[in-house]
Amino acid sequence: MELFLGDIWFILWGLLWGIYFALDGYDFGIGMLLPIIGQGTRKESDVMHQVTGPFWDGNEVWLITAGGVTFAAFPLAYAVLFSSLYTPLLLLLLMLIMRGVAAEFRHQLADSNWRLFWDLTMAGTGFVAALLLGVAFSNLFRGLPLDANHIFQGNILNLLHPYALLGGIMFVLMFVAHGAIYLAGRVNGDLSAKAQLAAKVSWPLFMLTFLLFVVLTFFWVGYFEAYAQSPLLFALPVMCLVCFLASGYMLYCKGNLSHSFRYSGLGIITLALTGVMGMYPNLIPSRLDPQGALNLTNAASSPKTLGIMLVVALIFVPIVILYQWWTHRRLAETLDSEY
C-alpha cells in the first residue's frame, strides 16, 4: 500500500509541475514579449497586461500546490531540494515577487518612462524565472551532487553546466512560443499579427532546443535505460512530440490559435511527466553516490499521510480545475488592441 500510494503521488507530483508550467508559462512568455511587440503604442502594452491580468496570480496557485505536495508527500526530498538549490529558488521567489509588483505598480502613473520601466521589469523577471526553472529541473534530471548522507556537495556554479543551461534556454523559448500563441488568440489587429509572427519565429527555435535536450537526456543522462525497463512509458515522450508538432501544424498550416495553444499546453504537461517518470523511483538522483539519491523508499511520508492527502486532492483539485476553467471561459474574451 505504501509503495502504491507513493507511486500515485510521484505521478501527481510531475503532473502538478506540468500544469504549473503550462499555465504560468504563457504569463511568463507574454511578459517577455512586452518590450519586443508591446511598445508600438501604449494601447498595445496595456492590452498585453490585460490579457494576463485576471489569471496570472491564479496560475501561481499551481506552484504553491506543487511545492506543497513536495513538502507533504516527500518531506526529505523537499528539505534536500530547497537546501541544495537554495540560491536559485530564492532568486525564483524574488522574480515572482517583482513580477507581481510590476503588474500592480505599472498602472499607478501615466508617465511613459514609468510604464516602460515596469514593462522591462516584467520581461526581465519572466526571463530569469523561466531560465531558473529550466536550470533547476535539468539538474534534477541529471542528478544533484549529493553524498551518501544526502548532503549537497557543490555550489551554484556547479549547477550551471551546459546541459542545465540548455534546459533553461529551452524553457525560455517554450514559454515565449506558448505565450505568443495565447496572446495572438486573445487580441486582434496589429498586435495579433505581431504575436503570431513572434510565435512562428520562436516555435522552431524551441523545437530545435527541445529535440537536442531530449536526445541528451535520453542518451547522455541515461533516461533510455530507465524507459527501456518499462517500454510503455515511451508513450509519454512520443505524446509530447506529437503535441508540440500538432501545435506547430495548427499555427502554421491551419491558423487555429486556440487549438495550437491547447496542444502546446498538453506538450508542456507531457514534457514534465516525461522528465519526472525518467527519474522513477528517484525524486532527486545523485550523480556522486547512488546511496545519496532520494526515492520513494527513503523520502516518502507515511502511508496514512499519503492516504489522507489523496482523499483531499481528489476532492479539491477538481474544484480548482473547474474554477480556473470557468474563469478562463468567462474572462478570456478577445481584446481590442486598436485605438
Label this structure with key terms:
globular, single chain, 13 helices, 339 residues, two-stranded antiparallel ribbon, mainly alpha, 2 strands
User: What class, by secondary structure content?
Assistant: mainly alpha
Q: Alpha-carbon distance between the termini?
A: 62 Å
Strand runs, count: 2
Strand content: under 5%
Record the strand order, biggest sheet: 1-2
Largest sheet: 2 strands, antiparallel
Number of domains: 1
pLDDT under 50 segments (min length 5)?
none
Which whole number gives the mean pLDDT?
90
User: How much helix is in the residues?
Assistant: over 70%
The arrangement of helices and strands along the chain is HHHHHHHHHHHHEEH
The best one-word shape is: globular
Radius of gyration: 20 Å
Specify the number of helices.
13
In words, what does this structure look like?
The protein is mainly α and 339 residues long. It has one domain. 77% of the residues lie in helices and 1% in strands. The protein has 13 helices and two strands; from the N terminus they run ααααααααααααββα. The protein has helices at residues 2-37, 42-52, 56-59, 61-73, 75-84, 86-105, 112-142, 162-186, 189-221, 223-229, 235-254, 257-279, 303-331, and strands at residues 282-284, 294-295. A two-stranded antiparallel ribbon has the order 1-2. Helix 1 (2-37) runs antiparallel to helix 4 (61-73), helix 1 (2-37) packs parallel to helix 13 and helix 9 (189-221) runs antiparallel to helix 11. It starts with a helix and ends in an 8-residue tail after the last helix. The model has no long low-confidence stretch (mean pLDDT 90).
